[in-house]
Amino acid sequence: MSANPSVGRVRCPVCARPQAQCLCSLIPRLWPPTQVLVIQHPDEASHALNTARLLVPGLVNAHLLVTENLQEHPAWIRRLQDPQWRNELLFPGERAQVLAPAPADVRPRRLVLLDGTWRKARKLVYLNPVLQTMAQVCLPDGLVSRYRLRKVPQPGALSTIEAGAEALAVLHPGFDKHALLAPFEALIEGQIRAMGQARYLQNYGAGPDRAGE
């Protein structure tokens, strides 16, 4: 046994996985025209299976903002209110329009994703008026999550990295969503192998209510 109990728990600063299970070799460096901003609830930052930490490094023009209150980040509020950008919030709701390319709009596009449980994601919207005033979009129906370690709370619910990959594929036909999802697939497969198929089937027939991981 190591004299240092912290040895073996050192995590990669990029993907946040234990060093022995680092997924960075699978993370691409893609540059879609649309900028992505992931607003992560602080409670999600240390979640073992969080996928925002796999999504953002895979996109050159993506940003991860860990906060519950955007008032602490006035520069981002200004960016999200900038009329020279097409800013959209990817979040289902009554006023959400199905995501689609905007060939007639010459403005640069920014897509905002919320990373957290559904309850926390709704709280992020409630606490931040700038999110309430943004154009709201949703993914097309019929998408199925591959996050097999969680039972989705409703049809079409996806992990954060899946939502980002599917959204960019809709906006930019030909976008390589499979390259973006490669570390996520490896993460899930590795977790299932580690626990064994029998335990996986026993323990993950149900899961918590999560909007993104």
Describe this structure in words.
- By secondary structure, the protein is of the alpha/beta class.
- It has one domain.
- Helix content is 30%, strand content 14%.
- The chain has seven helices and six strands, in the order E-H-E-H-E-E-E-H-H-E-H-H-H.
- The chain has helices at residues 52-55, 74-80, 118-127, 129-133, 160-171, 177-195, 197-203, and strands at residues 35-40, 62-66, 86-90, 97-98, 109-115, 135-138.
- Strands 2-1-5-3-6-4 form a six-stranded parallel beta sheet.
- Strand 1, helix 1 and strand 2 (62-66) form a beta-alpha-beta unit.
- Helix 5 (160-171) runs antiparallel to helix 6 (177-195).
- The two termini are 33 Å apart.
- InterPro entries: DTW, DTWD2/TAPT.
The count of DSSP E runs of length 2 or more, i.e. the number of strands, is 6
Task: List the helices and strands in order.
Answer: EHEHEEEHHEHHH
What distance separates the N and C termini? 33 Å
- Helical run tally: 7
Average of the residue pLDDT scores:
85
Describe this structure in a few short sentences.
By secondary structure, this protein is of the alpha/beta class. It has helices at residues 52-55, 74-80, 118-127, 129-133, 160-171, 177-195, 197-203, and strands spanning 35-40, 62-66, 86-90, 97-98, 109-115, 135-138. 30% of the residues lie in helices and 14% in strands.
Task: Give keywords.
disordered N terminus, six-stranded parallel sheet, S-adenosyl-L-methionine, disordered C terminus, 213 residues, alpha/beta, globular, 30% helix
Q: How do the strands and helices of this protein lay out in sequence?
A:
Layout: E1 35-40, H1 52-55, E2 62-66, H2 74-80, E3 86-90, E4 97-98, E5 109-115, H3 118-127, H4 129-133, E6 135-138, H5 160-171, H6 177-195, H7 197-203
Parallel strand pairs: 1-2, 1-5, 3-5, 3-6, 4-6
Helix pairs in contact: 5-6
